[in-house]
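FAQ

Q: What does a record look like?
A: Structure on top, sequence underneath. For example:
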């Protein structure tokens, strides 16, 4: 009976994460639907030099290349890292193979869920905003081919004349017959290439920093806490001039605080830093092409890049522990009793006693007395 109950609960927990995947997919579908709708067409001036750039047909980074670099490549890399390097060097050689693969698969699942959430939300928000704002691209006039001979028929605002400028016209002045090209000319804000690339590639960079402990060295809080003295190095007090348990001739000098603090951390190998920032360099290049190909204004690129960066950071932290203190792990699964939500008066979605016991089993490779191998191994 107990085994059947645990099985039913496990299925319930798994289904709760299946629902998470479905929601991520629906967010992406919403973004795809936005691409099929007609955007707003913001009035523009036919003499505005900021939208008079040439229309580039062969862009440097196509949409298919963007998806390959920002989605497919991070997906493959994160999967390989989880399958090859998890659960890490702390795992005992006596750890059961089933427990190792459970942890590998869990890390893989959370890696892809975070990546999917970052990219899906960036896709949906970007395309939704494009339709809402309808901002002209820098190459709008080349796409539009305005009917200047009948300009007065399309004036909707502004002051001036056809020759002096200052008049605002509606999109109906355009003689472009390809509505796809014309509508895309009003999708400048924000930059989709920038938001999507920064979302996927920043997530990949954060993921690599987490798994390979790439972080700026820092002091542990205990090194500069206010509750000194601390007992260290054989119970000798840091602030004691001499060890009072020994005679003056046998007394050991106190340990230097500066020596202790400097030995608490060290810089990671520089080649790891280079590897972690390769995705950032790729995102910078992709964003720059939207300027050089005249597809976006500078603010559109900056806004899209910042949005992608923030979405990547939020999605990474949604599923992963902090880089500095998380030892490369993703957060554990939700508690079995809290898989579908919690009400007021309950703190968090994890059962601390269960998952702490499971982590100890993972690190020690030790079987519990009842024959189970950790709560997370038995239930997930």
């Amino acid at each position: 009976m107990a085994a059947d109950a645990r099985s039913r609960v496990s299925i319930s927990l798994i289904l709760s994460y299946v629902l998470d995947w479905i929601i991520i997919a629906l967010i992406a579908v919403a973004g795809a639907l936005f691409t099929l709708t007609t955007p707003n067409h913001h009035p523009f001036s036919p003499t505005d030099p900021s939208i008079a750039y040439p229309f580039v047909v062969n862009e440097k980074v196509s949409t298919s290349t963007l998806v390959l670099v920002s989605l497919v490549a991070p997906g493959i890399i994160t999967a390989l890292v989880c399958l090859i390097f998890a659960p890490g060097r702390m795992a005992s050689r006596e750890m059961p193979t089933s427990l190792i693969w459970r942890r590998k698969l869990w890390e893989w699942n959370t890696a892809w869920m975070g990546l999917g959430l970052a990219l899906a939300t960036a896709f949906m928000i970007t395309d939704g905003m494009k339709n809402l704002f309808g901002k002209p691209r820098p190459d709008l006039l080349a796409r539009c081919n305005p009917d200047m001979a009948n300009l007065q028929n399309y004036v909707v605002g502004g002051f001036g004349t056809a020759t002096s400028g200052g008049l605002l016209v509606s999109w109906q002045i355009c003689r472009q017959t390809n509505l796809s090209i014309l509508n895309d000319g009003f999708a400048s804000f924000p930059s989709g290439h920038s938001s999507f690339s920064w979302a996927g590639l920043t997530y990949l960079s954060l993921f690599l920093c987490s798994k390979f402990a790439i972080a700026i060295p820092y002091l542990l809080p205990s090194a500069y806490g206010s509750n000194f003295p601390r007992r260290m190095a054989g119970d000798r007090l840091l602030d004691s001039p001499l060890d009072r348990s020994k005679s003056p001739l046998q007394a050991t000098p106190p340990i230097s605080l500066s020596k202790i603090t400097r030995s608490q951390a060290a810089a990671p190998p520089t080649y790891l830093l280079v590897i972690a920032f390769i995705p950032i360099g790729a995102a910078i290049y992709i964003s720059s092409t939207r300027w050089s190909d005249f597809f976006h204004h500078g603010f559109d690129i900056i806004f899209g890049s910042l949005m992608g960066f923030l979405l990547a950071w939020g999605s990474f932290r949604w599923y992963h522990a902090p880089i500095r203190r998380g030892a490369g792990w993703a957060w554990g699964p939700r508690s079995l009793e809290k898989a579908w939500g919690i009400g007021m008066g309950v703190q968090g979605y994890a059962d601390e006693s269960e998952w702490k016991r499971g982590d100890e089993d993972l690190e020690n490779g030790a079987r519990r007395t009842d024959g189970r191998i950790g709560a997370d191994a038995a239930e997930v």
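Q: Is there anything notable about this one?
A: The beta strands are 155-161, 165-169, 231-232, 236-237.
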